[in-house]
Amino acid sequence: MVTLLDVAKKANVSKMTVSRVINHPEQVTAELRKLVDDAMAELDYHPNYVAQALVNNRTNVVKFVTLEDIDTTEPYYMNLLFGIARGLSKKQYAIQLVTNRKQIKDGNFDGYLITGARFHDYALFDSLQKPFVLFGENHRGYDFVDNNNQLGGKIATEYALSRLYSHIVFIGIDVQEPFEYSRETGYINTLQKNKLIPQIFRIANHSHAAQKVIQDNFQQFKKDTCFICASDRIATGVVRQLLNEKARVPDDFGVIGYDGVFLDQVSNLKLTTIKQPIFEMGELLAKMLLQKIMQQGSPQGEAMLEPTLVRRESTR
Q1: Which end of the chain, N or C, is more open, meaning fewer C-beta atoms within 10 Å of its C-beta?
Q2: 111-115 and 61-66: which strand pairing?
Q3: Short-list 273, 307, 304, 306, CA closest to 138
């Protein structure tokens, strides 16, 4: 059985250095970390994180808290959970799902991963005594992981313009939250750069609400209009109602969604969308929180991954 001493000899460092690399990597230079990591990989050495947890008075349990009503069977959240689980498993951590706000502080655990946060939840976060990282952009200074929403809005709008749509309409989600503002900002800035006037509708994040917007305003939408939508759910409703109105999609009207997890592929027509790297964001969430736990709650900052454009049938 490979021991810590074997790894130290292989890397030509002290046993204490190997221990530091495993338990407090932030205290070790990148060169030393690489030496030890390479030695562990070559010897197939796997640290016993459960034993370390006992020594450090940790539980190796993280709470995944959802603060909004979500369907956890929906592919978006399942991808996020799988990414988180993979990230946590690297340090032999388990995940506990919490959907009841009253249970947030119950039991023994080491930290929180939180999704669905809204402005009115900030007082709750300030009261938490254990490390946490948010899934979702915020402007309060809390550590978070998200995709670059402003970039996503920019990419969608630039693509619509490149497909020679003359009128670009944004249909956003009716929430006063940073992710929505950022997606709108990407759209607005791009239009202003091209000397075009923004037109924005904000609705509930439901396909039926999107259908109603198109139905109520269809006569005012000119041909060569592309709808930039803040979610694939909204985009599916837009496509459905445009087809109900006998509009030609994508020849006269284009539709671009946002998320790229599942609905974009089952929509009729299949959606051009801005795809979020959900699985990778889940892994990064886990990595950031575990590092924060090891560093006794030290700030980790923010991490934004780049979304990508997926071209499909809803744009020409």
Answers
A1: N
A2: parallel
A3: 304
